[in-house]
């Protein structure tokens, strides 16, 4: 009876300990030893300050066992670390906090490891054991409930507090985010080790709610763009009006497409919807680029030949990555932008471009050869619409049609850049494409007459022929502007041509 009592106490203690570790109130001891399926060198074991994980997955009908160490810093959010979650029917995952505890073989979903240290069969359990078995889970449940209520109230208080003061409250996010981590570290960690599509939603929300807005930097049809501060660094915050919930959702969804991250596509950080009782604030947080849009940049500055090639090549690289489909589990679908223009491209500090505003983009599901949303006929900016979009002859069943329409718009952007190129002391003033042929804010009808009926295109001046770089740019533009979409260049082709040009002209990217 004495040993039974001890066992019960031990079991209770173990439950409590596991619970405490689970909610992150005490630090798990250093150098926890775990089994490790991919550590041949160190004898199939590893050491960690975090947790041991065992997981069993079914891949193409085959059962695969993985045992690994998880570092403490990756155990976010606490209580339900993303690395420890099972996926119904596919993946059974178990995290634990004692030496070699991940040696278990998970097979049955929700399978609990056998209690090796419990003697006897369930039939021979004494009353104390039974009490422990029944009281243990009840105790755990009550504790979780109390902790839950406490955390909820704490969160509410902080949230209300922040709403009132609108200042950064550092007391809340320490639970989730190590204090010394910058956003870049966080995103780097997760895009290299995780799914490759960005921060977990929970972290996104925490980041978004600790941003302090500084100044408004732009207004658009969807809402406003602000510069904000997060841990001393600048971020851009696009705030959608609540009417635009669908645009917000769509843009966040596109930015979180797996493997989308690229140096020439605007870096997405977080999406958040704050409900303050009367209305919902919809935020999209991204990297901040102080030069602003290519449109602003070209209005302010002329560019050198080198500067022009850098802008053009980086824009082509970004678009090529967007358009490209990468096959495999870590692959990415092809994406068409559908609203490419100089106002939707940002200029980074190093003079290269980042493509932004993916709210109208469409993704291609190659397995079913379908497009992920029903695309409506004419979206985007009228001035930049391809001829087949203006006269509604575009074949919307065919994904490549949208890519070809993007290329047409890229050609117009190239024309805007090339006009500002300072070669031999000459450069032109900034103008929008078709500035001389249509009024400001042209109607679709006005654009169609010029682009489809009269088949006019922006003027490529003769003097561009005397400079190799401008000659090449002029040639690319013309090949982007064909009335027949299928005849246009691809983004990859443009990227290759401009790479050659950049080598020839000795441009350092
Ligand atoms: C886990 O590691 C321990 C100690 O090295 C070893 O005895 C055990 O067999 C391992 N378990 C599995 C399933 O590999």
From TrEMBL:
Source organism of the structure: Pangasianodon hypophthalmus
Top EC class, one word: transferase
Cofactors (names): Mg(2+); Mn(2+)
Signal peptide, first to last residue: 1-31
Domain GS intervals: 181-210
PROSITE patterns: GS, PROTEIN_KINASE_ATP, PROTEIN_KINASE_DOM, PROTEIN_KINASE_ST
Protein's membrane topology: Single-pass type I membrane protein
Gene Ontology biological process terms from the UniProt entry: activin receptor signaling pathway; cellular response to growth factor stimulus; regulation of gene expression
Transmembrane parts of this sequence: 130-152
GO MF term list: ATP binding; metal ion binding; transmembrane receptor protein serine/threonine kinase activity
Catalytic activity of the protein: L-threonyl-[receptor-protein] + ATP = O-phospho-L-threonyl-[receptor-protein] + ADP + H(+); L-seryl-[receptor-protein] + ATP = O-phospho-L-seryl-[receptor-protein] + ADP + H(+)
Keywords: ATP-binding, Cell membrane, Glycoprotein, Kinase, Magnesium, Manganese, Membrane, Metal-binding, Nucleotide-binding, Phosphoprotein, Receptor, Serine/threonine-protein kinase, Signal, Transferase, Transmembrane, Transmembrane helix, Ubl conjugation
Pfam families, A to Z: Activin_recp, PK_Tyr_Ser-Thr, TGF_beta_GS
Keyword Manganese: yes
Subcellular locations according to the entry: Cell membrane
Residues that coordinate or bind ATP: 238
Any single Gene Ontology cellular-component annotation: receptor complex
Protein kinase domain segment(s): 211-501
Domain of life: Eukaryota
Matches recorded under Gene3D superfamilies: CD59, Phosphorylase Kinase, domain 1, Transferase(Phosphotransferase) domain 1
Record's protein name: Activin receptor type-1B
The organism's taxonomic lineage, starting at the top: Eukaryota, Metazoa, Chordata, Craniata, Vertebrata
Subunit structure, as described in the record: Forms an activin receptor complex with activin receptor type-2 (ACVR2A or ACVR2B). Part of a complex consisting of MAGI2/ARIP1, ACVR2A, ACVR1B and SMAD3. Interacts with SMAD2 and SMAD3. Interacts with SMAD7. Interacts with FKBP1A. Interacts with IGSF1. Interacts with CRIPTO. Interacts with TDP2. Interacts with TSC22D1/TSC-22.
EC number: 2.7.11.30
Primary subcellular site in the record, as a coarse category: membrane
Family classification: Belongs to the protein kinase superfamily. TKL Ser/Thr protein kinase family. TGFB receptor subfamily.
InterPro entries per UniProt: Activin_recp, GS_dom, Kinase-like_dom_sf, Prot_kinase_dom, Protein_kinase_ATP_BS, Ser-Thr/Tyr_kinase_cat_dom, Ser/Thr_kinase_AS, Snake_toxin-like_sf
């Amino acid at each position: 009876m004495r040993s039974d009592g001890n066992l019960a106490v031990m079991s209770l203690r173990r439950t409590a300990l596991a619970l405490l570790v689970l909610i992150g109130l005490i630090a798990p001891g250093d150098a926890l030893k775990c089994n490790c399926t991919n550590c041949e060198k160190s004898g199939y074991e590893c050491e960690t300050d975090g947790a041991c994980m065992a997981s069993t997955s079914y891949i193409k009908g085959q059962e695969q066992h993985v045992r690994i160490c998880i570092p403490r810093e990756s155990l976010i959010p606490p209580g339900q670390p993303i690395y420890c979650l099972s996926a119904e029917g596919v993946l059974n995952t178990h995290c634990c906090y004692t030496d070699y505890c991940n040696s278990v073989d998970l097979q049955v979903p929700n399978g609990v490891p056998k209690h090796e240290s419990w003697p006897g069969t369930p039939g021979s359990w004494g009353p104390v054991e039974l009490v422990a078995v029944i009281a243990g889970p009840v105790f755990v449940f009550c504790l979780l409930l109390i902790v839950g209520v406490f955390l909820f109230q704490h969160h509410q208080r902080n949230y209300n507090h922040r709403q009132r003061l609108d200042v950064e409250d550092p007391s809340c996010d320490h639970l989730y985010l190590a204090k010394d981590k910058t956003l870049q570290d966080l995103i780097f960690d997760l895009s290299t080790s995780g799914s490759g599509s960005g921060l977990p939603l929970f972290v996104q929300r925490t980041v978004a709610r600790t941003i302090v807005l500084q100044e408004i930097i732009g207004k658009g049809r969807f809402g406003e763009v602000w510069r904000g501060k997060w841990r001393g660094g600048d971020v851009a915050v696009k705030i959608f009006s609540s009417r635009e919930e669908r645009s917000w959702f769509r843009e966040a969804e596109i930015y979180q497409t797996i493997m989308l991250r690229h140096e020439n596509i605007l870096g997405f950080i977080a999406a958040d919807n704050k409900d303050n009782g009367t209305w919902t604030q919809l935020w999209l947080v991204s990297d901040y680029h102080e030069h602003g849009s290519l449109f602003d940049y070209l209005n302010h500055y002329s560019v050198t030949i080198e500067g022009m090639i850098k802008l053009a090549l980086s824009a082509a690289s970004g678009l090529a990555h967007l358009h490209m489909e990468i096959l495999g589990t870590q692959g990415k679908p092809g994406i068409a932008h559908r609203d490419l223009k100089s106002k939707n491209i940002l200029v980074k500090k190093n003079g290269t471009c980042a493509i932004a505003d993916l709210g109208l983009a469409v993704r291609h599901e190659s397995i079913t050869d379908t497009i992920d949303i029903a695309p409506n006929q004419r979206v985007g900016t009228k001035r930049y619409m391809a001829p087949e979009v203006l006269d509604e002859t575009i074949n919307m069943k065919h994904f490549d049609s949208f890519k070809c329409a993007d290329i047409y718009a890229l050609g117009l952007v190239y024309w805007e850049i090339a006009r500002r190129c300072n070669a031999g002391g000459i450069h032109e003033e900034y103008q929008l494409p078709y500035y001389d042929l249509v009024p400001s804010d042209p109607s679709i009808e006005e654009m169609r007459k010029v682009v489809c009926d009269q088949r006019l295109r922006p003027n490529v001046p003769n003097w561009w022929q005397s400079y190799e770089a401008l000659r090449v740019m002029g040639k690319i533009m013309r090949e982007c502007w064909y009335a027949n979409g299928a005849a246009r260049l691809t983004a990859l082709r443009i990227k290759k041509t401009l790479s050659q040009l950049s080598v020839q002209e000795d441009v350092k990217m």
